[in-house]
Amino acid sequence: MTTVNAYAAQDAVTPLAPFNFDRRDVGPHDVQIEIMYCGVCHSDIHQVRNEWGGSIYPMVPGHEIVGRITVLGEAVKNFALGELVGVGCFVDSCRVCPSCLAHEEQYCDKGMVGTYNGRDKEGNPTYGGYSTQIVVDEKYTLHVSEDLPIEGVAPLLCAGITTYSPLRHWNIGKGHKVAIVGLGGLGHMGVKFAASFGAEVTVLSTSKSKEQDALNLGAHHFAVTSNPDTIKNLQGHFDFILSTISAQHDYNLYLGMLSLNGTMVVVGAPPQPSIVQAFSLIGKRRSLAGSLIGGIKETQEMLDYCAEHGIVSDVEVINMGEINKAYERMLKNDVRYRFVIDIASLNR
Amino acid sequence: MTTVNAYAAQDAVTPLAPFNFDRRDVGPHDVQIEIMYCGVCHSDIHQVRNEWGGSIYPMVPGHEIVGRITVLGEAVKNFALGELVGVGCFVDSCRVCPSCLAHEEQYCDKGMVGTYNGRDKEGNPTYGGYSTQIVVDEKYTLHVSEDLPIEGVAPLLCAGITTYSPLRHWNIGKGHKVAIVGLGGLGHMGVKFAASFGAEVTVLSTSKSKEQDALNLGAHHFAVTSNPDTIKNLQGHFDFILSTISAQHDYNLYLGMLSLNGTMVVVGAPPQPSIVQAFSLIGKRRSLAGSLIGGIKETQEMLDYCAEHGIVSDVEVINMGEINKAYERMLKNDVRYRFVIDIASLNR
Asked: Looking at beta carbons, which residues of chain A come within 8 Å of B269?
């Protein structure tokens, strides 16, 4: 076992603080990764503060991990020492259920093993990427291109795949009018992917201040949802809406903007339930759906797509010690668009 | 113009009572229909009592109409004098929008003209089937088989197509596990169609008392949703759930029973908004969708399918004077499964 430096939450209300723990020894199928960057996801805050319930403390968050392989298990086949790799939201799953066999481990019947705030098959808590090192089975490890800025790749492991997967699943591309609701860590990736796939992209935001950024990211239009005239003009307009908001919001407002047979997919998960009026769905045979990250195979496909098309997340790199301040800024939407922790700062 | 006998609501709180009004003259493209039977839909109650807002009084409800053609407009091409015909939930639409051109007039961009509680293109209120006669453009008139019991056909015009259409749209058939929520006018038709299409059908009901009926209607299984063990055992079980309940209910309870990529379609429209927890959708990429009756082309297809397969609604025939009592019984789920008014009773 190796003792690693980390930051952890000791409970739901105390700020994150330095913490040490032991990583498991490298098994035959494992790779040991020296973590270089770890993205900061809104779900880190939800879980640190136990807003979804069931949090395990101490908690070392972080599931947008990029680093280099420092030790290879003897049976590892698909990775090389020194290779740049990524780890996303889960590090194991049952491997035998229909979802796992269909390469959709995120929907594992037994429940995937979260990269943090989960329990591995021995019942030990899992610790995430706010740490200097992680040991992961190669089956749950991703290849990362050397050609992209590494810090911009880290958020692809969650924010990237979370938006890529539903756009692919619902076959979004040329000829589709797509709205992205919210322009944060998820939303800005949704804009990049939807535009890259050929869709006509509108960003829906409560804040006019993000208009220029939205256009810079590749959006074709921008609309402020607090303007009733805007809402009225967009009734029945979109084929597909991707809602990235993780605060409680009114689904009906957005459902009304869907055209016949349109689909709104929620990828943000407000802790509180939301309101849906049946008429909002019935009137134009609309669907409200959810989508959860993506499987390992699709995550690799997404990373390869990003390498080919030069897509990364727009990030603000911080030191580990700035994490509590970063959380506060995220809650005020004051980040363009993802905080990424420079994990080297943990050793300084 | 012809003066016809009818029953009408004069406002949202007074019981329905006898009423006379004039039907328009038969235009070149119209058929005049002597109404024989009219089904009683839950939406009649919603609209009579103004529970959806915007009700127009006096209101003559009724949109499950079967009768015989007594006058043919000079330009009518597809119907014959004396022919048995049906009229469903709408009697006109804009005819030029993409939905109308796609034979989905129920989703007309300008709004379909409801058979009652609507306004025709001249702005006159429309009056429905709780009356002895109706004049309808042949394009919005359906052919009805002479081989089925006429009173059992009437509810097909709304309850039938409302359940047939989503089952067809989502391609339900062999190999699918389908749940029908609620065993009323809509639900019992949903069971018949889903079973006829080859699906494995479970009825979900709050009332154990309907078990034998559900099985008699063609369901393969029956589950009482007030039993927590039942709910637990059915988690992730169904590919498709059709919710026919028009009272407020907890969508999450049913969403949890959907398998990966499963869809729940609501066809009942509670006046109050319902609660949806994003996690219920995200966890297995589930969809919550709505569906609204069906277009004229699909309604004819449904009627032809019913004639071919001997499918009708199970009905309790009442006289017009019993309508207020029937409404009260419907609100207690005390009808198996659709009241149908013998319109001849209006002339007695």
From this structure: 278-279, 282
